Amino acid sequence: MELLAACRQYDYLNYVWVVQMPKELRAPLFALRAFNIETALVADSVRSKESVVGQIRFQWWRDAIKSVYDGRSPNHPVALALAHVLHSPNPAAAAGAAVNTPADVTPDGDETRWSSGSCNISSCDSVGGGAACRSTDVSLDASNGEQGISASPFRYSRYCFKRIIDCREADFLDPQPPLDLQALEKYAEGTSSQLMYLQLAAAGIKHRDADHAASHLGRAAGITTLLRGTAMHAASRRCYLPVDLCAAARVSQEDVYSGIVSEGLRDVVHKVASLAKGHLDEARRLASRLPTGAAGVMLPAVAVGRYLQALEAVNFNPYDPKLIREQGGSGAGSAPISYILAVKWHHLRGTY
Prior knowledge:
GO biological process, one term: mitochondrial respiratory chain complex I assembly
Distance between the termini: 28 Å
Keywords: Membrane, Mitochondrion, Mitochondrion inner membrane, Transit peptide
Radius of gyration: 19 Å
Order of helices and strands: HHHHHHHHHHHHHHHHHHHH
Helix content: 55-70%
Mean pLDDT: 84
Family: Belongs to the NDUFAF6 family.
Subcellular location: Mitochondrion inner membrane
Largest sheet: none
Low-confidence stretches: 96-150
Protein name: Phytoene synthase
Number of helices: 20
């Protein structure tokens, strides 16, 4: 119940799609998302100005993950949930192995204003938590018996957990805005993409194209989450809009903190949103090549697409009150019924 309450309070947009998944997959997905929430909230929970306090908490999570893999989970609800998930047989394998049949996709909305480039496949293949990393996990599972059915925790890449913790800690220790789009993208890949890889593992999916799509969708979701939180971050004097774009548009950090909406700010937000849209489009382009069951794990794309459309509708003003009210997604009931119905519709169709 604690995990469900945390996900409903802090991650409601994702809570909506997780409850649509088969019953046997909900516990693993909620445990993974609760871990993501716990590490994301470390910075907010540290009241002391001493950075060492936050470092101690991040190190606690590193030690906790190691203990979970070693079968010695600390007495913490999220760590205990992860231990149960990691050391239980693969629920997806029990229901039957996935086969490589196509899944449909229906891209949402007009794309006329978005500037997106082509996919650099070589860069996606080098992602730490992607196919190369997960292929190692397959061999570890196989050494314990039937591939994908054993109770070995190694079907979940420990590297993905490490990347999430490391990226969160680096952001905590250096709260300056990202220097450029590449730095922003790197943070999204180190957090949201890693979580996507772990969710694929929970669903028992080991597939190169699924990893590729997860990499793109994770970056799109991570960047969109930061855009969605622009006003909230500004209230805490944090900014995730790239320094070089702000400088070129003559937007100061104080402008961002004060919520001053200028044409320069709209231009910066448009460029950041276009990067997210490009990754979302690429994730959707790969839909027909994904194995059965993968489309459900990709349902975060629905919230990403809807937010980017809504942001464009208010001319890229991240402080727009209606945008924040309808697309904030911070707590239970914060998502409009149209979003909940859209998630159900995509889930029934096997699209995202």
